[in-house]
Give the backbone structure.
Amino acid sequence: RFRLRSDMIYKLINKTTGEVIDRVDVRDQDPTEFFMKRKKLDSKSFNNLFQVQSESYQWWEEESTKLDDF
């Protein structure tokens, strides 16, 4: 189950193609429930077609680990 955070973007992914269908910043409800309502699908149908993932920026992967020479 997802933890709700104000700085998280969630993406809706088509399970067949792997294509990202939609992205949303959901603050006040479960992102899976949000997308199910948007698509007007019950949970079984939704889970057969889609996957919801969080999309977070991992700044530490882009930071240099080399220290400056003094």
Notes: The chain has a mean pLDDT of 82. The two ends are 48 Å apart (CA to CA). The chain has two helices and three strands. Strands lie at 9-14, 20-24, 50-55.
